[in-house]
Amino acid sequence: MPESTLSSSSPDMNCSSVSYVHSINEAGRLLPSASRWNSIEIDYNAFPKSSIEYDSLPSPYSKSVEFNLVITDKTHLKRFVYISIFLVLAILSLVLLLHFLAPKHGHHGSSKNLTLAINQALTFFEAQKSGHFPKNSSVSFRGDSGLQDGNSSSHDLVGGFYDSGNNIKFSFPTAYTITLLSWTVIEYHQKYADIGELEHVKDIIKWGSDYLLKLFVLPINATSSSTDTNLYSQVGSTTSDRFNDVNCWQRPEDMSYSRPVSICNSTASDLAGEIVAALSAASLVFGEDKAYSGELIKGAEKLFELATAVDPSAQGTYTMSDACGGQARQFYNSSGFEDELVWAETWLFFATGNTTYLGSVTQKWTSAETEEIPSEKWIFDWNNKITANAVLLTRLRFFHDMGYPYAAALQPSTTRTDLLMCSYLSEHIFNKTPGGLILLRPDDGKPLQFAATASFLSKLYSDYLDLLQRQGGSCSSHNYTLEMLRHFSMSQVDYILGDNPMKMSYVVGFGESYPVHVHHRSSSIPWDGHQYSCEDGDKWLYSEQPNPNTLLGAMVGGPDQHDKFLDDRKKPWFTEPSISSNAGLVAALIALHNPPCESSDFSCVRSGIDKMGIFTNIR
Fold it and tell me: What is the pTM of this model?
């Protein structure tokens, strides 16, 4: 493009009323020209004169000024040039150094080592394994146990996980645990891989999913009723004989008392639904293993078919039946079943791509929400899945347009999710302890399990919004930002890991101060080659000494509403861990763990989550 300059035809510009100009670049500035032959003549006397003395005002335009520079000392010039170059290079070096030395695993302001915390939290599941104990386990105080489980019902129920500090195996929270851990791998498998924990968490999931496949026996032939399905809800007892899994303080390796089995049929809709969800989610984790993934899906679809073939009036919770869940009521009493059935169909849809399941989810959504009891509102745990299901369906709405009629039908889940996020951030919906721990179920004790899943869902949802390049969301008249969600999420994990008034980490083995009198049989009894009876066990239960075996990674129940915590083995509401609680902890930790950033990866802030992997089977 032709440039332009403004020039005077004589050395005395101020005395001349005529100048010569020609156009310049995009800025359109007029500068003096040295030649009248490539210029346009402008007679300034042709314009009206103004009474204002413009010479007294500063010009907004740049002016050309001619300087006569004379170099008298080339040595000084060279020195000036060298120093200038050095300063520029030094500044550039400093910028690059700060960039490369920035923390590769930032944690949204947390000073905690989340990589270590994840490894420890996963290790807890190793200590909970039942059956033939792996020889390569990092847990040194465990061995083979429960090898006769299921014999009383002539069905192999060896394997799975002991639920908590006792030696009972509860099917309902086990299935929930596998569903949640699988979800974290589906979303954050790259993060797990980056810190070397992917195979570790997958091994834990498979240990659980292998056991879940044993928990149901389908009818022998097609003419059999769907209620002929056997579902095993529990191994171990709270009432049988003189000694049982509750009143006997004994390592699982030493168990000598009877371990009866609780049996249900397919009317236990919640139990069936959670097992279906777990198998479906796990099938996505093991998608590369076509044979095993196929086995999981086949079992999930068949069990769901039988569970939903039951007369709706006969459907219910597993704890409604004494034979099925009578003994589980004091531990895992289920308040409803429709949320589990919707949860199951959601995961079946992701696992198979069959839109029939999604259609059913949208039709049953309102009913499932209505079933939710007030005390469960906004909770995600082994009992209530509707909260997390809303987040999961919102993910589908955000990243995989299903078109008519699903798009409109999924809107309520997004509305609920926004309300969920606002409930976490609001000062009026949930109280917090003076130290900042959210109290989602203040009357039930063991608050950390609920805070952990809230941390997970808030961080996960912020990642979804980040992928959409949104800065936040809103509910009613309130707005929230990604930073607000992430701050809340991190604050709960920081509290759990030691930033609390007790200055104590509630994850065993993490930090300098943590519970040492954990309510846990294996951890509290020495691994010394001796077999201890139930009578012997009381010595260890009531001992004032710290547990001889460190239950690495176990998240205990946590403090009371006033941040007070008693490290007392005899008070399980403070010091007992469980597999379902630790699943929530793992979920929160991996969600908050930032992926390592390559120096050239400017999109690293949004990496670490697999945006489309969950839709692999959806066409």
Answer: 0.82
Q: What Å distances lie between residue 67 and 19, 64, 77, CA to CA? A: 21, 10, 17
> For the segment 41-92, what is each residue's pLDDT rounded down to a tens digit?
444 343 334 343 434 334 443 434 444 445 556 676 677 677 878 787 877 7
Gap between the Cα atoms of 452 and 496, Å rounded: 8
Catalytic-labelled residue, pool 519, 538, 544, 560: 519
Q: What is the pLDDT of residues 370-391, one digit of tens each?
A: 999 999 999 999 999 999 999 9
How far is the C-alpha of 11 from the C-alpha of 337, rounded, in Å? 95
Residue 41: strand pairing partners: 20
Report which residue type is found at 529.
Answer: G
Exposure letters 29-52 (e unless 16+ CB within 10 A, then b): ebbbbeeeeebeeeeeeeeeeeee
Residue 519 among the catalytic residues: yes
Q: What is the pLDDT of residues 466-511, one digit of tens each?
A: 999 999 999 887 899 999 999 999 999 999 999 999 999 999 999 9
Whose tokens are 């086949």? That residue is 298
Residue partners of 50: CB distance under 8 A and separation at least 6: none
Say how many residues make up the chain.
Answer: 619
* Nearby residues of 308 by Cβ (< 8 Å), 6 or more positions away: 341
Contacts of 613 (CB under 8 A, 6+ apart): 186, 189, 284
The Cα–Cα gap between 226 and 302 comes to 10
Q: What is the DSSP string of 198-223?
A: HHHHHHHHHHHHHHHTTSEE--SSTT
The three-state secondary structure class of 531 is coil
Among candidate residues 567, 568, 593, 610, the one labeled active-site is 567
Note whether 133 and 162 are within 8 A (CB). Answer: no
Residue tagged active-site, from 345, 376, 494, 576: 576
Name which of 560, 553, 550 is nearest 582 in CA terms: 553
SS3 (DSSP) at 501:
coil
